[in-house]
Every structure is written in C-alpha cells, then in structure tokens.
Amino acid sequence: MAEDYMTSRMVPLTDGVLSIAMTLLVLDVHLPGEIATLSDGVLWQQLVGIWPHIFSYVLSFLVIAVLWISHVQKFRHLTRMTGLMVWLNILFLLGVSIVPFTTALLAENGNAVSTAIYAVGMAFASLMLGLMSVHVSLSGLQESDVSDGHMRAVSILQFGTTIVFVTSAGLAFVDADWAKDLWLLLIPLNFVRGRRKSAAARRRPDAP
Predict the structure, then answer these.
(1) Residues whose CB is less than 8 angstroms from the CB of residue 95 and which lie 6 or more positions away in sequence, other chains included
(2) 112, HSE (Cβ side, Cα atoms, 13 Å)
(3) Which residues lie below 8 Å from residue 63, measured CB to CB, with a gap of 6+?
(4) Disulfide-capable partner of 119 in 89, 165, 196, 205 (CB 3.0 to 4.6 Å)?
(5) Is the pTM of this model over 0.85?
C-alpha cells in the first residue's frame, strides 16, 4: 500500500480506539458481591443472572471486530487521504467509542429505548464505514488494481449492516426481542461480505 502521512497516523489511532472500546466492554461483566464463599449452585445462579451482560459483551465485541476488519480492508487499498476521509473516520470512531455505554445500557435494560439506542449507535458507525467506501470509490483513492465495482459492492454490503440496525431500532418499539432477533441477519450478510473479499483477494495474488 502506498501510504501517505495522514494514513499512517489515522490507522494506529483507529486501531487504538477500537481496541480500547473492545477492552472496556468486559468491565461491565462481573458478578455482584463477594463470590469466594459461594457454593457451586449459587455461583451458577449468579452466572445465569448476568447472562444479559455476557450476551451484550459478546455481541458488541464481535460487531466491533467486524467493523475493524472492514476498516482494515478499506485502508489496505488507500493511496492517500482527503479531509473528508479524515472526518468520516473520526465520526466512525465517535460511533465506536460510545459502544461500551450502549452495551451496558442494553445489558441493564433490554427494553425498547435501550435496544433502539444500541442499534442507532451501531448503525451510525456502520454508516460512516459505508460512506468511506463510497468516498474512496468516487475520489479514486484506492490502488489502481482495485476496481470501482469492488468498492461499490463493499459499500452496498456495509450499508446492509446499517439498514439492519436502523430497522431494528424502529422495530424495538414494537417488540424489543424481535429487534434483537433481526440482528441475526448480520451473520449471512457478513458471510457474503467475506466471500466478496476472498474473491477480490484471489484476483489480486499479491494481496496480503
């Protein structure tokens, strides 16, 4: 990758913010009170009791991981940065940095408002990634052997994630559980995205 100065500064900043956000998620997963003297039965009950926290932690960790992978794929092919690209990336980091808060909110109260807030935060971060892909394609910021068609396909798939979260935010006010079930669509969506990236890598034998 032909990397300019701003790209070399933005990548470690993004990696740092995402790794900190992923680490902060686990701080909300803990058992209440003293656990040293608990019997096995009571300990299992308490572990079951914090299941919403464990679910929210795993969900958010995996979503941030997918966002990071998408970000790596975009920046791997960048040849230069623009001012708009910098600000889209900063707004992306804004969306990611609030995930520990929205995750704790979802774990403590999984009702409509907390589910919608969580979904909107994830949709915002995903939207910024999609807009970055569009900007890269329209401005010709990618390496010459990366087609505009490939970047457009990546953008469409990224916007698919955004649509899932936005739809679930509205659905949460009908049924919060249905909204969470809708997030399961992210599994096939990211499978298709992964296949698309693998196909692009096979067409570029020199790709890392």
Answers:
(1) 121, 122, 124, 125, 126, 128
(2) 6
(3) 99, 122, 186
(4) 165
(5) no
Q: In angstroms, rounded to a whole number, what is the distance separating the alpha carbons of residues 133 and 73? A: 10
Query: What distance lies between CA 91 and its chain's CA centroid?
Result: 13
Query: What letter does residue 142 receive in the DSSP assignment?
Result: B
Query: In the 8-state DSSP scheme, what is residue 132?
Result: H
Cβ contacts of residue 72 below 8 Å, gap of 6+? none
Per-residue pLDDT of 59-117, as tens digits, reads 999 999 989 988 887 787 777 888 899 999 999 999 999 999 999 999 998 899 999 99
CA distance 54 to 154: 31
Tokens of 86: 């910098």
Note the pLDDT tens digit of each residue in 109-140.
889 999 999 999 999 999 999 898 888 878 77
CA distances from residue 92 to 10, 73, 166 in whole angstroms, order as listed: 12, 15, 16
Decide: 103 and 28 in contact? Cβ < 8 Å: yes
DSSP 74-110: HHHTBS---HHHHHHHHHHHHHHHTHHHHHHHHHH--
